[in-house]
Amino acid sequence: MQNDGFWSDRNVFVTGASGFLGGWLLKSLISKGANPICLVRDEVPKSMYYYDGLNSKCVTVRGRLEDLELLKRALNDYNISHVFHLGAQTQVLMANRYPPDTFMANIMGTWNMLEACRGSKQIEGIVVASTDKAYGSQSKLPYNEETPMEGEHPYDVSKSCTDLIARSYFKTYGLPVGITRCGNFYGGGDLNFDRIVPGTIKSVLKGKRPVIRSDGKYIRDYFYIEDAASAYITLGENVKQKEIMGEAFNFGNNDPKTVMEITELMSKLMGSKLKPDIRNESSGEIRKQYLSSEKANRLLKWKPKYSLEEGLKRTIGWYTDFFKKNGLAKTV
Would you say residue 332 has pLDDT above 60? Predict the structure, then answer.
């Protein structure tokens, strides 16, 4: 349920703009005529924000989510109408090693962003990025939006808090907030090769065995990044509707796979017979996580465009081109 004219000439504030999802969301917003103003903490030359030249089409605001006054100034100086709050520390391993940085960015950063929005008279819609990990470990699967927030590990707890804080700003102040809870993103542009999809593709292209750090039996939703950007856009356009405002929505592909299954599927699509190197080193992660997107289908009329196999084919094509341009030819 998208309106192609909705974003034309709107000033949109995006946190986490130099992240994986941020790049694809910006591409979509720019194609729809929006004027993105982007909060960027660090310059990451290999991110899509710089690699694809998105920074030349956006206004860059340098700073951190922990700086409330900066956020207030940005919203008012640029007459922002919509906010996409994606900014967060998203690395589970980093969160487990040193939780305070994750709590500061993800929890304090969320209340700062929402507090800045509360002080602005121009804000018409806010989309806050939560995650399926905010649900914690549950015996009943798939998760639906009534499943309680029960994160246990540092990253999961930080996103449970993000989710609850966003809901409280709607309930208490009537802010036009919508919350996204998505599965594991994959797609071109993710240069964190510790993740299973880009890591497997890189290994196969180099003729090496893909590394699985767990036992291969962890179950996840794998959610193609272009579908994710579409989900955020759809929620942003509809967040002021009475039945949407203040609500959380699960978004995913509704096709959960084990880590072993997703690895084997990628190898098959790439024509590789290399067997995975299963290291069984992972700890502090939930074993089974997958979502029902029925609510988004029903209220937002949203469905993913790409199947898992179609998304992986597009992803493999992106990395094949990327590595050719960067001196790594395909070896399989």
Answer: no
